[in-house]
Amino acid sequence: xxxxxxxxxxxxxxxxxxxxxxxxxxxxxxxxxxxxxxxxxxxxxxxxxxxxxxxxxxxxxxxxxxxxxxxxxxxxxxxxxxxxxxxxxxxxxxxxxxxxxxxx
Length: 104
Fold this sequence. Notes:
With 104 residues, this protein is mainly alpha-helical. It contains 4 helices and no strands. Keywords: Cell membrane, Membrane, Transmembrane, Transmembrane helix, Transport. Its main location: membrane.
């Protein structure tokens, strides 16, 4: 259950990271509200997950999910560049997340 909550926390981290772009400097109320809710939800779920998971592992996986998801959505939604080097580096992050999951 803790790994599932950590995964959800990572998804909400993606939500707030992408949401920041749509807040337009926190001047748009609805995107700002959704971004803040996503931030709080992400941290609360992380807090629940670390009750049973090692802190370092949970934090690394949480930020890794957020990083990979944010980069991928940035490419798909925001026109960020999808160079070979960027995608290779994202692959390294995914490998690190998988490795941490296997040893925790």
